[in-house]
Amino acid sequence: MDTALQSLIYAADDHYLSDADLDRFHKDVHSLAERVEAYETLRDRELAILQPAADYLSEEFPNADPKLLERGVIHWLNILRYSSMAMLLNNSEFLSQRILEWMPDIVQAYQLQDIEKALYRCLQTQLKSSLSPEQLNLVKPYLEEAYATLLNVKPALQPSA
Amino acid sequence: MISVKELIKESRFSGNYFAPDAYIQGDLESGLIENRDGGRLLALPESFMRAIYEGLAEEVGSASEAVLYKCGAWWGKTFYRRFAGEVSQHLGRPLAEIDMIEFLQCFKQCWKTHGWGTIELDFDFYQNGFIVVQIYNSAFAKTSPTLDKPKCFVEAGLLSSFFGGLTGQKLHCIQTTCESMGADCNHFVLGLPERVKRAEAWLQEKHDHATIMKRLSQSQTDC
Question: pTM of whole model > 0.90?
């Protein structure tokens, strides 16, 4: 559920929404059609976006364990899917709870940082050619949040006090 | 070359199975809160937890520590079985094929979603035969009477059974720091019983967690 809309609903527990709140509500509902369209594009072009990135990864890391490269690709498959849903719902907590709390330790444990960085670089190019600028602007904040979270991990294991 | 089409076909994707909005469900009309597997969940008020501590202290005195540890151990045994089954089913792979890091991530998320605080695992002493667990915002520490020693016996018992199930070995767990005593988190040490139990004497001597871990690690080389 859109957290902004949810907050408005809770706020209106004992009164009607103000004009300012109704404006926010209207803007949010109005952008839903654009978000649905962007979601459909990301869904329908999933392979077209990710296969070139996977190919680039194989060239960039010719000596890497293929299982690790696959793991990186699967991470970004997941991130794209959940970012798309978070965008559709207009809810960044969805992305955080479903993926971003989950993945950083795995990235750290398998030392995937360089692979993740390379994939993200290539994905940005693929997304620019697959989405309109407006659609890209809708999903970009979620992808940037995912990238920042994945690559800014604190060590998963803390030394004993 | 990596085939993304094949990866999608294999469906090896999984988000956080224990994400609160997905994991906690229920039929409010019937007054039921359930997990996504259909298992019933209950909300435990703090006052109920306090009553358990106080009631036990009144009935069995100092033996309440052993009783609470035993309760935790029983709970941990069934919890491990149920948890492992849920994770295995969700990921579509038998337990033996699941990466340990993935399994432990599920465990951390499960812990958090159930409202038991947050849990971190420290494997710095693994080569010495010990696992250190840190629990923050423990419900059991918060509701225990504040005394001069660690009080999270239920959690200690649970951790001993859970990791015993995971490793296939009989393990013992001792708490070395406690939020009820003003520590920033609750430290637990897991290991073979004959080794970890040495820490009980050092705890009574009021040694801190770092000293206890140093001594435990040295005690391995002394064997």
Answer: no
